[in-house]
Structures are given as C-alpha cells and as structure tokens.
Specification:
Blueprint: H1 3-8, H2 10-21, E1 24-25, H3 26-39, H4 53-56, H5 58-74, E2 81-85, H6 91-102, E3 110-113, H7 117-126, E4 131-133, E5 145-150, E6 159-164, E7 167-176, E8 181-190, E9 207-210, H8 212-228, E10 230-239, E11 249-252, E12 255-257, E13 267-269, E14 272-273, H9 274-283, E15 287-288, E16 292-293, H10 294-301, H11 303-313, H12 318-329, E17 338-344
C-alpha cells in the first residue's frame, strides 16, 4: 500500500491495518480518522460540517476576552501571553484579543496550538502575528499564560471499556466481511484497572469512556499555570463525570452521521468528562472553578448588555443579535449542553462567572 493511498483513503488503511494487526482500539480508530479529517479541510460554517460558538457571533469571543481581561487586571496587570488550543479559523482569538486590547491588555504574543495546515492558514489570516505550535510542549515558559480551549477536548481520541460477563474489556473495532462494514468487539485482554471503582456493580453491557490524552494535556498546562501564573478556560460539551454511557458521535453536513462510514470524512467526537479534567488540574497544583453551563456563564459576564449595545449601534442587526445570543445561552440550544470550567494559578484572583 502506498503512502498516498493511506492518506487519501483512511478507511482502506484502517481496514488493512486491522487485517494485519488484529482488532483496533476505538482510541486508535478515532485518532487516525480525525487526523485525516482535520488535516484536509476547513469543517466550519454553513458549507462545512458544524458551527462553533465563535462563528455564531462576535459576542462569544468578546465575552471570553473580557473574562480574561478582568482576571488579568485583578491579578495586577502582569505581562502575559495568549494561548488557544484548536483555534478553528482564529475567529475566537481575533475577537478575544480585540476585547483584551479594549481593556488595556496587550499580550506579549499569541500562541495557537494547531496541527491542521488548512486551519493554520485560516488562523494566520485572522491573527497575522500568531506563533504556531504542534503541541503544548513548545509554549513559552517565562510568563503567565491566558489559555482558551473551546471545543478542543471533545475531538481528542478516547477509550471505551464495556462490562462483559468476564469483567471489563476495552472496546475494539474489527472488520466484518459479512456486512462489508465494521463492528465492535470486547477486547481480548483485561481492562479492569481502567474501570472506576464506582462502576464495580455496573450491569453487563455498560460502557465507560475515558480520555487519557486529554487528562495528560490538562496536566501539562495546569503545571505550567502553577509554575508561571495565569489561567485556562475550557468550554466544551460534556458532563461532570464519571458516567456510564456511549457518547461517541459523528457529524457531517450539520447532521448526525455514522462514525464508522467514510472515516476521515466526518468529525468524530465524544462528551468531555470535566471531572477527570478537574482532577488532573488540581493534582497539578491549580485551583479549579465549579462547573457551570455556558448559558449561565455568558449571561453572568454580560452578553445581554453587549447584545443591546451592538443592536443600538446597528439597529438593522437587532434580530440577528438576539437570535445569536439565544443560540449561545438558551438551555434548548447550546446553553445547557456546553459547560465551562476554569483552572487558575492559586496566587491569582477567583474568576468571575462561576457563581
């Protein structure tokens, strides 16, 4: 098999790897599929597969920027650097940086952690002076960091274990030649050590998810914050886990899709376990806020007032602005499903928006 085939036909490459090496973990499948997906397209917007909060309205990024600015001001206005993980098109960064500047905060530099060449090009247009990083290891080590992670953790590869009559087993993927598709199998090896004690009595068929790479990234960044100062704001859809359930999903053309059809052609995600991220952050030495719903967070920060101000400046946009605010805050839209959590240097003030 040529390298070109592996790049252009990830499904074929996955099937051949399973044939050669045996069943593939869900973690490895998602890593291969999403790596191809994000490397080959801009998935955002009406012509893409999904839309994120920053693309709905400038108000989202502005609220994030003002949240950062308030925390920075109360921390004594130190020299800081702006960091964003998985910045999409750079829209949130551009809006947040504009809001930061309006409050007198001018970060020494902007650092975007992004591996997709397609999205890097869009980010460079939105934030021309940005520095790009493949991962967090190369971020600056000498000043406080203001870190934003919006819809970043949900796209990281995750694991699933399932309770069988023989105990917990990792869920793996096998080729099913009869159906010309793929199917799940419990793994052949034990996975008891990965099952939280709380799930010991879970009935057969129960599924538990974990994201070790997400916890490792949180540990790395929280360790940086504890040593350098600063804060990290994480916004994503998820829950205060641990929880039982299969949350894996795929989206294509703004509709739910089968995650095992055309791997690499659709976005695969899972709900974020915020408790696991919080535990990793606390263990690294930072303070962690209560988990709040996105709608409550944005309302507390003043998105209603900002919407009114923008509508006063451009009355013809009033309906558009109201619709955008509701989409971001209404419990039936993004307001309840999406959660917000902050990890902050213990020497910095308590952040706004969480009580």
């Amino acid at each position: 098999m040529s390298a070109d085939t592996a790049v252009t036909r990830p499904g074929e490459a996955i099937a051949r790897r399973i044939d050669a090496d045996g069943p593939m973990t869900l973690h490895d499948y998602m890593a291969l599929a999403n790596a191809h997906y994000y490397a080959t397209r801009d998935p955002l917007g009406a012509g893409g597969d999904f839309i994120t909060a920053p693309e709905i309205s400038q108000m989202f990024g502005e609220m994030i920027g003002l949240w950062l600015a308030d925390l920075w001001a109360r921390a004594g206005r130190p020299a800081v650097q702006y960091v964003e993980l998985g910045p999409g098109r750079g829209t949130l960064a551009a809006d947040a940086l504009r809001a930061l500047a309006s409050a007198g905060c001018h970060p020494l530099a902007v650092h975007l952690v992004e591996t997709s060449p397609v999205l890097r090009a869009a980010q460079a247009r939105a934030v021309p002076d940005a520095h790009f990083h493949d991962d967090a290891a190369t971020l600056p080590t000498d000043t406080p960091l203001l870190i934003v992670a919006n819809e970043f953790f949900d796209a990281l590869p995750f694991r699933q274990i399932v309770r069988t009559d023989a105990g917990w087993r990792e869920r793996v993927l096998a080729n099913d030649r009869l159906e010309w598709g793929r199917r799940f199998l419990p793994g052949l090896g034990t996975a008891d050590v990965t099952a939280p004690a709380a799930f010991a009595p879970a009935p057969q068929g129960s599924v538990v998810e974990s994201c070790p790479i997400g916890e490792a990234i949180m540990t790395t960044l929280a360790t940086r914050i504890a040593a350098q100062g600063g804060a990290m704001l994480t916004i994503d859809y998820g829950h205060a886990g641990p929880a039982v359930g299969d949350t894996m999903q795929a989206v294509q053309a703004h509709r739910f899709a089968d995650p095992f059809v055309e791997p690499g052609a659709r976005d695969i995600t899972a709900h974020v376990d915020f408790t696991a991220l919080a535990d990793a952050a606390v263990a690294a030495g930072v303070n962690v806020s209560p988990l709040v719903e996105q709608g409550d967070f944005l309302i507390r920060l003043g998105i209603g007032a900002r919407s009114g101000m923008l509508a006063k400046q451009a009355p013809e946009r009033r309906d558009e602005l109201v619709a955008a605010m509701l989409r971001l805050t209404d419990p039936a839209e993004m307001g309840r499903l999406f959660k917000v959590m902050a990890a902050v240097d213990p020497d910095w003030p308590v952040p706004e928006g969480f009580a």
